[in-house]
Fold:
Amino acid sequence: MHSCIIALVLVLASLSSALEISAPHQPPLLALQSTTAPISTCIERFTAYYYASYNYVFFNDPADPEFDFTIVTSHLKFYPHTLAQWLEERNFTVVAQSYAEDDWLCGWHVDRPVVVDGRRHGTIGWKRNDLRSKSDTLNSGNFSTAGATSRSYVPHAGPIKPSRLTIARVEAILRENTPWADMYYFRCMMLGIGCGMLGLSFVWYGLMCYAEVRRQQKKLRGSTDSDDIELDQIQVHDLSGSGMERMDKDEHTEAPKFDIEMAKPNAVKLSPSSIGSSVADPPPMYTLDGAGRSPVRVREMV
Structure:
């Protein structure tokens, strides 16, 4: 039991520190891309907390209208909303995920991930959008009039990457905000699961002990009942001196009285032929009279 508890504590410790240790491998979307020939990729739409691996924040910069931006983060619960508030505070325009069409989710390029104190806060993604009109349809949140950029589409003019100043501003937001809420939420969830498993283990152990105690009690009760049945069939009489005296004083008890007597056979005349033979006398004869009531009397039979 102690070994199980120690193993459970070690598992919880490793799970709670999983958010603080950078992963040795990077998924395709978060991998470092070449600055000369960026490779485009598609973004998986966020569905639910327990089924998704990443969450996204879509936005654009009025100072750099030729590009759409996104922040990809593995902190799913609270961190995206916090980043959206800080982006709006820094004069970025946040776009709701519900406005993004499926075709628009492809054609994204990613920059290097932002890591602070061994924790990956997020990765900045960007996408060239030459088909956007000057009316800024993406700013209005209407993606139906904005053309979809295919993965193989290469713009004919303009910069390949957004300005370094825009990327630096987004990186500053990621560095200044640590996803403490998501980290504590994940730890509490793992701790709750571990406590639930530990509680179920204690309940199971208690039920097993209770069943064992009941089995031992039932076994002991059956043995006691068997002993009682055997004792009822055997009657033990008091054979001590007081018991024998009580039997002597009982006048109403009509019991046969016996005397112990020893009879000696009559003398036998021996013939001359039998003189000199070594024939022993027959043994004396005894009779029982009044055993236990009076001393034994030996009478010589004539």
